[in-house]
What does this fold into?
Amino acid sequence: MAQLLTEAEIQEQAGGLSGWTVEQSKLKTSRTFKDFIQAVEFVNKLVEPSESAGHHPDIEISYNKVKITLTTHDAGGLTQKDFDVAREISQIN
It folds into this structure.
């Protein structure tokens, strides 16, 4: 099982992630697209990096908005895995 990060480690890691927030042991971001098709195309781009990392985000799609939440469920909070996947997601257009 992945080790939970301390509050100081979480704040340090979060400081290097633009567009992400930490809320109740979860790392969150949202993206807005032109339309539903572009939103779904973006979500499809999340599959490969998530599968490669063996760590999958919670995803909500509402027409042209995509909300992504990362947490390590089996550890009960934020781990390095969450921040690693968040960095990869941040690189996807």
Remarks:
- The longest strand covers residues 26-32.
